[in-house]
Amino acid sequence: MITLYSFPSSRSLRVAWTLEELGLEYACQHVDLAAGQGRAAEHLARHPDGKVPAIQEDDLTLFESGAICRYLAERHGEPGHLLPAAAAERALVDQWLFFVVGELEQPLWTQGKHKFALPRDKRVPAVLPTAAWEFQRALSVLQSRLAERDWLVGSHFTLADLMVAHTLSWAVMFKHRLPDDLEAYRQRCQARPALARAVERERQAAESSRA
């Protein structure tokens, strides 16, 4: 049995979404980061930085959302589902996964950290214009890739689209207005039933932990 350690509206949703796309059975355990549960010794043994997501499956403990999602798709997915069957196309998926973490999410989360996430005395407002500029550059790269295609790799939704769409949804939460074509792409991804199930699963886990 796979156990996902999660917190709603965080990167753990990427993992829950992947699990639902794959149709896997899993336990979803809420980690109340706001109450300090991430710093408990038990959780630090799973994630040394006290964050989510983390998963446990048999003897494997894994953190970092990109690594977890890639592992799940490789280990449990049918060839050609979230990961293409051809090696070259799998490499393209990996390319976009690295792009998400290094180019798209990084300047977006820099803005979030220096607006609300970091302690006030650690925030540096002067970095915000540069981070916003970097994020717009990354959006331009996505626009050029999606100009004449519906999905990032091949002819159907893959793990690359899942990771990008989740990050674009963060951008919308952070009050960024996406270009119309990227917003339409985001909504295509968001309309997938597996995402709705993942959101509900994390919500139920959070509610159960408070019962």
TrEMBL record:
Residues 86-208 form the GST C-terminal domain. InterPro entries: Glutathione-S-Trfase_C-like (IPR010987), Glutathione-S-Trfase_C_sf (IPR036282), Glutathione_S-Trfase (IPR040079), Glutathione_S-Trfase_N (IPR004045), Thioredoxin-like_sf (IPR036249). GO terms for molecular function: transferase activity. CDD domains: GST_C_8 (cd03207), GST_N_GTT1_like (cd03046). Keywords: Transferase. It comes from the Bacteria. Transmembrane segments: none annotated. SUPFAM superfamilies: GST C-terminal domain-like (SSF47616), Thioredoxin-like (SSF52833). Residues 1-80 form the GST N-terminal domain. Pfam families: GST_C_2, GST_N. The keyword Transferase applies. Belongs to the GST superfamily. This is Glutathione S-transferase.
